[in-house]
Design a protein that fits this description.
There is one protein chain. The protein contains 3 helices and 6 strands, in the order ααββαββββ. With 123 residues, it is of the alpha+beta class. Strands 2-1-6-5-4-3 form a 6-stranded mixed beta sheet. The protein is globular.
């Protein structure tokens, strides 16, 4: 569990630092990565293309981990994300469902987001 958490932290930091040098150790070559709003990237080369493209247009300002939940070969991460993309600042809460292979590389990652601020609709 500690190694998995470390890999996830390294991955989040790679976005903040715009540094893809560690990604080949974090992801399985056959990674399937599904973003919260629909795009799906299949294979490590496609993931790298997305990382490079996104970082030419955007900057991750904050990606804070709130908690980890582990079960078997799966880890759930609850987080807060803030970025600037195409000169628009956005922030939201999110959850990632992450599946690891026996070597603790990520083989599947699915993101889900929850818009903020949260409100109580019956006031």
């Amino acid at each position: 569990m500690i190694e998995r958490e470390q890999r996830i932290r390294q991955y989040f930091d790679s976005w903040i630092n715009k540094d893809n040098s560690i990604l080949s150790t974090i992801f399985d070559p056959n990674i399937v990565y599904t973003e919260s709003y629909g795009p799906q990237y299949r294979g490590f080369d496609t993931l790298m293309l997305w990382f490079e493209d996104w970082n030419t247009r955007g900057t991750v300002l904050n990606w804070t981990i709130k908690q980890f939940i582990h079960q078997g070969h799966m880890t759930v991460v609850e987080w807060y994300f803030k970025c600037v993309y195409d000169d628009v600042t956005d922030a939201f809460d999110g959850v990632s469902l992450i599946e690891f292979n026996p070597g603790n590389q990520i083989v599947s990652l699915k993101e889900f987001q929850s818009k903020i601020p949260h409100s109580y609709p019956y006031t």
